[in-house]
Amino acid sequence: MDLIEKLQNGVRLGYEEGVELYELDLVTLGEAADRIRKKLYGKKSFFNINRHINPTNVCKDICKFCAYSASRKNPNRYTMSHDEIVDIARQAWSAGAKEVHVVSAHNPDAGLEWYMGAFRCIRKELPEIHIKALTAAEINFLAESNNMSYDEVVDLMIESGVDSMPGGGAEIFDEKIREYICKGKVTSQQWIDIHRIWHSRGRKSNATMLFGHIESREHRIDHMLRLRKLQDETGGFNAFIPLVYQKENNFLRVSEFPTAQEILKTYAISRILLDNIPHIKAYWVTSSIGLALLAQEFGADDLDGTIQKESIQSAAGADSANGLPMEEFVHLIRNSGFVPVERDSLYNELSRY
Ligand code: SF4
């Protein structure tokens, strides 16, 4: 069977075939990914009403691609109090948000109690809101700085009210690229081990991949296949989120940025290769809303959410600082020929528009 026949027959593809997919033309790839997407969800496109909270930008790490951390190029150092965090969550809930997405930097002065106490305070004030919080990189930081095991940190998160884990900190799993772009941060194997532990508690998480910087196509395929392997074992990932690298205000020297065609191919290939991860998310914050809408025809079935406010990607040039109003979000999805479906954080359908 050649590659096209395998694609048509839904045969699971390996590493070499994954790399070969990039050589196919965009239309062939798009059709194959769209077939899979349609079979799973028809014309539905999922989104949720959420609010990102980034409680501190003080970080002990020095990732070259980062524009958010105060230890890199961001001059505005801040750490929120628990009251400030709860106030934001309360306002978000009043504005219709069902989820807070709480991720931040690795602040060596804040302490474990500051991180966990924030979740307990949100939970006490808003018993029904979904708390998605702490990337594997943050969990690794908290474990190392408090001399705790990953199991202990994960159990404490659950006790403190965290419902699910975001997929950040994965960047690119290839060890050499990782050493160059984010030396000292959670390793690839640690990232995978932490998600395995989280899944073993019956909890869900997402997985990201930062692409479009100094990595190659081969590195992206390797990244996807490492995730597919863990998903075969645990089934705990809800969504895969390819994040397009944002180029402003950081220390990573990148000479060539991915074209729209390369970005769409990456969405399509992820839909084809990750046959065991239910959702492919076009995170509009990093791809732009225009390309995210187009990605719906290249395998993506989820456009993330309204966000309301975002500090990490917008520091690096993304047009996401103030999110998107719900009406506009729905209008854009509908106008692109898809059916907007509001979901909760675990992909239960809440309403169709
Ligand atoms: S990407 Fe995260 S861990 Fe790395 S420097 Fe920025 S805030 Fe710190």
Helical proportion?
Answer: 40-55%
Low-pLDDT residue intervals, each spanning 5 or more residues: none
Strand-residue fraction?
5-15%
Counting DSSP E segments of at least 2 residues, the number of strands comes to 10
Largest sheet: 4 strands, mixed
Q: Please tell me the overall pLDDT.
A: 93
Radius of gyration: 19 Å
Structural category: alpha/beta
The molecules bound to the chains, other than polymers, are:
iron/sulfur cluster
Q: H/E element string?
A: HHHEEHEHEHHHHEHEHEHHEHEE
Explain the overall architecture.
Helix 3 (26-41) crosses helix 11 (260-273), helix 6 crosses helix 7 and helix 6 packs across helix 9. This protein has helices at residues 3-8, 15-21, 26-41, 82-94, 112-125, 136-145, 150-160, 175-182, 188-200, 217-234, 260-273, 284-287, 289-295, 326-335; strands spanning 44-48, 50-53, 99-102, 130-133, 205-211, 237-244, 279-280, 302-305, 339-343, 349-352. 43% of the residues lie in helices and 13% in strands. By secondary structure, it is an alpha/beta fold. The radius of gyration is 19 Å and the shape is globular. The chain contains 14 helices and ten strands.
Notable characteristics:
353 residues; alpha/beta; four-stranded mixed β-sheet; three-stranded parallel β-sheet; 14 helices; 13% strand; globular; binds iron/sulfur cluster
In short:
The chain has 353 residues and is an alpha/beta fold.
Topology:
Elements lengths: L2 H6 L6 H7 L4 H16 L2 E5 L1 E4 L28 H13 L4 E4 L9 H14 L4 E4 L2 H10 L4 H11 L14 H8 L5 H13 L4 E7 L5 H18 L2 E8 L15 H14 L5 E2 L3 H4 L1 H7 L6 E4 L20 H10 L3 E5 L5 E4 L1
Parallel strand pairs: 1-8, 1-9, 2-3, 3-4, 5-6, 6-7
Antiparallel strand pairs: 9-10
Helix pairs in contact: 3-11, 4-5, 5-7, 6-7, 6-9
